Amino acid sequence: MDHNTIAKCATVFKRLVLSLLSQPSPRSIIIEEYSAKVVNRHGAHLLVKDEQGIRHRCISPKKFSYVVCGDRVRCKYIDRDRDQLIEVSSRNNELLRQTEYATKLVAANIDSLVIVCAIEPAPSLELIDHYIVAAENLPASAMIVINKIDLCKSTETIAAIKNKYSNLPYPVIETSIEKPSSLEDLTRHLADHTCIFVGQSGVGKSTLINSLIPTLNIDTQTISDSIHQGKHTTSVTTLYDFPQGGELIDSPGVRNFSLPKLDKEKVSKGFCEIDKLSAQCKYHNCLHINEPSCAVKNAMGKNELHVERYASYKKMMEKFEK
Ligand SMILES: Nc1nc2c(ncn2[C@@H]2O[C@H](COP(=O)(O)OP(=O)(O)O)[C@@H](O)[C@H]2O)c(=O)[nH]1
Ligand SMILES: [Mg+2]
Ligand SMILES: [Zn+2]
Q: Which ligand has its closest atom nearest to the C-alpha of 276?
């Protein structure tokens, strides 16, 4: 019998005793409500974990349809098979994603974005910059994981990523599930935080989480699946307890991560090295595109700013100007 069933049996037993004694206790109402965190969501069905780490199935009324993985909630016991969501706490932050048609919530209350790329499929450095802009605006910290380094034939790809982010506050960690020792550095960065793994489909997010939490068995994309369009790719964002403290969130991969429309200040905030330089520009509202006496353009001229970071910044500014 798992913890969940034992807890449910205990509640049912307690109700039975109380009804036999004909003493409806106001205390039982309090016990039957509890605080929890959302583990995942399938339509109106939520899986939540209470403060003891026990998981409960929970129904989400329509008015709480916005609730996502990572939300802090209150739930109420209904019957032995399910509980009901009754209250949602305000969020520290929320990760959003823009699809062709709508803005989607990915997860809430995040401390850190673990941006996973891999030797295969080939990494998109622009996508990494998009995720960094998202992290800076949450705000949350960010780290870059280069996975599948066992497949690396030349060090060129790794060197390009390391070089681009070398003077920025985003650790670049190399990993491979073929080399368990490569996960030690990553473990140190993850411990005690709520970390969401993001990145293209097939880079190894679920495989890494499975390796970091040995008791897990998340479905991952097998080789034959990847040929046949990947049946076992992650479909819902799910939160797992990390044995070293904190939580790891697995999210479905995306072909193109797109940020919801941001104002110019937020794009600028997303490039911390550009944001820092802007205090020295002649104009306080300098966008660092064509303005005179621009500290960002000066830094570019002196090779103090990475060309590709500036290119990403400019492209994002132009995109959100429309
Ligand atoms: N060679 C190699 N393959 C890996 C590594 N990590 C994951 N994979 C493989 O990459 C494929 C995609 O992994 P998956 O975890 O489903 O990717 P996700 O879509 O990012 O969750 C699977 O076939 C994994 O076995 C690694 O470090 N090295
Ligand atoms: Mg996955
Ligand atoms: Zn400027």
A: 3
User: C-alpha angle 166/192/107, rounded to 5°?
Assistant: 80
How many C-beta neighbours within 10 Å does residue 227 have? 8
Compute how many other C-beta atoms are within 10 angstroms of the C-beta atom of residue 238: 22
CA distance linking residue 7 with residue 86, whole number of Å? 20
Phi-psi region of 114 (alpha: psi -120 to 50; beta: other; left: phi over 0): beta
Question: Going from the N-terminus, what domains does the chain have, and what CATH number goes with each?
Answer: 3-88 (2.40.50.140), 94-250 (3.40.50.300), 264-321 (1.10.40.50)
* The pLDDT of residue 185 is above 60: yes
Q: What is the distance between the alpha carbons of residues 223 and 157, in angstroms, rounded to a whole number?
A: 23
Question: Can the peptide bond before residue 169 be classed as cis, meaning omega within 30 degrees of 0?
Answer: no
Nearest-angstrom CA–CA distance, 95 and 135: 8
Query: In this structure, which ligand is nearest to the CA of 254?
Result: 1
Distance CA 218, CA 82 (A): 24
* Ligand 1 site, CB within 6 A: 147-148, 150-151, 176-178, 201-207, 220-223, 226, 233-234, 253
Question: Per-residue pLDDT tens for 26-78?
Answer: 434 445 899 999 999 999 999 999 999 999 999 999 999 999 999 999 999 98
Question: Quick check: helix, strand or coil at residue 251?
Answer: coil
Say what the pTM is: 0.87
- Nearest CA to 165 out of 135, 205, 207, 196 is that of 135
Tell me how far apart the terminal alpha carbons of the chain are, to the nearest angstrom.
58
Of ligand 1's listed atoms, the one at least distance from the Cα of 207 is 15
